[in-house]
What we know:
- The protein is α+β, with helices and mostly antiparallel strands.
- The chain has a single domain, classed as Ribosomal Protein S5, domain 2.
- Helices cover about 30% and strands about 30% of the residues.
- The chain has helices at about 65-80, 100-115, 125-130, 140-145, 175-180, 210-215, 220-230, 250-260, 275-285, and strands at about 1-20, 25-45, 50-55, 85-90, 145-150, 155-160, 165-170, 235, 245, 265-270.
- Helix 1 links the parallel strand 3 (about 50-55) and strand 4 (about 85-90).
- The chain is globular, with a radius of gyration of 19 Å.
- It binds 4-diphosphocytidyl-2-C-methyl-D-erythritol 2-phosphate (SUD) and adenosine-5'-diphosphate.
- Adenosine-5'-diphosphate binds near residues 58 and 66.
- It catalyses: 4-CDP-2-C-methyl-D-erythritol + ATP = 4-CDP-2-C-methyl-D-erythritol 2-phosphate + ADP + H(+).
- Keywords: ATP-binding, Isoprene biosynthesis, Kinase, Nucleotide-binding, Transferase.
- It holds the Pfam family GHMP_kinases_N.
- This is 4-diphosphocytidyl-2-C-methyl-D-erythritol kinase.
- Its EC number is 2.7.1.148.
Amino acid sequence: MTLTLPAPAKLNLFLHIVGRRPDGYHELQTLFQFLDYGDELTFTLTPGHAGVRLATPMPGVPDDDNLILRAARALETRAGRRLPGVTIAIDKRLPMGGGLGGGSSDAATTLLALNHLWHLGLDLDTLAGIGLGLGADVPVFVHGQAAFGEGVGERLTPAHPPEDWFVVLKPDCHINTGKIFSEEGLTRDTPKIKIAPAFEGDASRYRNDCEDVVRKLYPEVNQSLEWLSQFGPARLTGTGACIFGRFPTESAARIIWESKPSGITGFVAKGVNLSPLHKKLTELE
Ligand SMILES: C[C@@](CO)(OP(=O)(O)O)[C@H](O)COP(=O)(O)OP(=O)(O)OC[C@H]1O[C@@H](n2ccc(N)nc2=O)[C@H](O)[C@@H]1O
Ligand SMILES: Nc1ncnc2c1ncn2[C@@H]1O[C@H](COP(=O)(O)OP(=O)(O)O)[C@@H](O)[C@H]1O
């Protein structure tokens, strides 16, 4: 049996750093929305062969570090019994370390796919708990609903931001999340905002607290933000390097995309409040 599922990107429509935990991790307030663009994973059961295997190794990521295999192994450990073998292939479209949550999304898709194929019957809260052990962004992908995130992003309140179109640009640099969070000049004391049960605010009123530090350290990001913000609000997602500009229609986004400076990569995508992963899983039921 074969199952092909999306692993969508996320955007942090805003990202405030509101404090620091005793273990050094930063407390955030952020608004997550998904994009209808991302990686695609194909799971094939191989009952004759035990174990989980990656059919498409990822350059630069040893298999044992790959969040897909780590998610599968965490699930096997939780199940505590021998499960049918599975081969996982990935069509990797999201830039790695781009602030789009690609690795976390791959992990979440793996958790949901294998829960389904292995008939484990674990609920979303349990899967999100397993996912949190792999990365702070995994729970929102497991729950599959746009959300206001608190804590390190794991305390989630469903949200309904407008489903606009986005131009996403990937400046040609790699940003290490740990480096940004350890920068001395980082804003860490943004006052907490109060959130209604269903956040519907205008995210363009809020900021990404990592942006000033990232702009100073990475001129490529600064230049891209300057260019994109000529056409409307533009912002960094996560700790970067990707930036996004928001547009009311696909055609408005595509006009700006076509005029982007040469040498910069990225894509145009729609913001969606229900994850494409959950949409697909519902269709399969
Ligand atoms: C910033 C966010 C926002 O969505 O996204 P990305 O830019 O990575 O996509 C996430 O919170 C990223 O969470 P996560 O994916 O778990 O972070 P990691 O790369 O494991 O973090 C690397 C390091 O950054 C620091 N770190 C990370 C998250 C956080 N809330 N506080 C921190 O201080 C820690 O020192 C950690 O060891
Ligand atoms: N399946 C995976 N896809 C992408 N990155 C992965 C994966 N597994 C492990 N990683 C590691 O996680 C890091 C962060 O990846 P990613 O989730 O794409 O970025 P970000 O957290 O900035 O959104 C990568 O640099 C890579 O070393």
